[in-house]
Design a protein that fits this description.
Number of strands: 13
Number of helices: 11
Mean pLDDT: 93
Bound molecules: adenosine-5'-triphosphate
Low-confidence stretches: none
Order of helices and strands: EEEHEHEHHHEHEHEEHEHEEHEH
Oligomer: single chain
Length: 311
């Protein structure tokens, strides 16, 4: 697979629950051997969009709408897509009665993998996800990070061409998060296409080649994470912490400097870091953080809301 091949195409897709549009007229495409991220806060519609791609949920019937995954429509060709994909759902749906290796063995039966080959694959995957020492452990004895790694290993059993991950690192500590990012990068290098949802802008920034920022079912903005930041927001941000400090800083803001004020904090934006430094000089240590802007700032600018509802 070269990255000029389009693996996923989504056109004019809507999903309505009751009167609510969980996904509202979305369209995007994903090139082979790249990582595409759906980024947005809780309830943005990321999981719903993803489920329609692998056939777990059906899009609204509409003549304009279309989804194609390796040329198959998930509304009818769900099984063909399943054979070519590995799915890591949001919840670690492992069999608690079985141990680590048994969880993989039972899952591999869906794919008719010959016995000897299967044994080899399981060993390799446990090694790849750094779980070899745990192969006989009961699921209950695993940490959250180990369970997640096992679910990823399980999704890789059928050597998928497309790996679909729903919030792969939510709730995990930074060490496990970095390990998972590293493995995703390595899979991509091997030619695998990755589709993921996340509400961590850092995750999108680190591993995605393209992201669509979503809110309330709608597309807000789409592009390469670095380009989204470069093209849509000032280069630097001064975060001012605390009400008194915010008041002090806002009195010193030079003309033309963009600002956001929340209940307790203020955020100042500028392309010239020295202009922000001159404001920071009147603040005490601990009252400010001067940093480069990021996707979180892009989200705030485009929606007026914080991206990060939970850690
Ligand atoms: P999260 O990060 O919390 O998973 P998300 O961006 O993945 O959020 P979705 O889970 O796709 O968001 O939910 C989008 C909207 O659709 C929400 O308002 C949610 O309540 C609603 N929704 C999702 N699944 C269903 C369902 N099966 N029945 C009714 N409403 C649903």
């Amino acid at each position: 697979m070269t990255n000029t091949d389009i693996v996923i195409t989504v056109k004019n897709v809507t999903k309505t629950y009751g009167g609510t549009k969980a996904v509202d007229d979305l369209g995007f495409s994903v090139q082979g051997a790249t990582c595409y991220g759906l980024l947005g806060p809780n309830g943005a519609g990321k999981t719903t969009m993803m489920k329609m791609i692998y056939g777990k949920s059906q899009r609204d019937v509409d003549r304009e709408s279309a989804i194609s995954v390796f040329g198959y429509d998930p509304r009818g060709d769900e099984l063909a897509i399943k054979y070519l994909s590995g799915v890591v759902p949001q919840d670690d749906n492992l069999d608690e009665e079985l141990n680590v290796e048994q969880n993989l063995r039972i899952f591999s039966r869906f794919y008719d993998i010959p016995r000897r080959e299967n044994k080899k694959r399981i060993e390799e995957l446990l090694g790849f996800m750094e779980l070899s020492e745990k192969h006989r452990s009961k699921i209950k004895a695993l940490s959250g990070g180990m369970k997640r790694r096992l679910v990823i290993a399980r999704a890789l059993l059928n050597r998928p061409k497309l790996l679909i991950l729903d919030e792969p690192t939510t709730g995990l500590d930074p060490q496990v998060r970095h390990l998972i990012w590293d493995r995703i990068r390595s899979l991509k290098k091997q030619g695998m296409t990755i589709l993921l949802t996340t509400h961590y802008m850092e995750e999108a920034f680190q591993i995605c080649d393209n992201v669509m920022i979503m809110d309330k079912g709608k597309r807000i903005i789409e592009g390469h994470p670095h380009a989204l930041v470069r093209d849509n927001i000032e280069a630097y941000v001064l975060d001012v912490i605390g009400n008194d400090a915010a008041e002090k800083a806002l009195r010193k803001v030079p003309e033309g400097m963009r600002q956001d004020r929340t209940a307790d904090n203020a955020r100042l934006y500028d392309n010239d870091v020295n202009r922000l430094r001159s404001v920071a000089e009147i603040l005490k240590p601990g009252e400010f953080v001067l940093r480069q802007s990021n996707l979180e700032d892009v989200f705030l600018k485009t929606t007026g809301r914080q991206l990060h509802a939970r850690q």
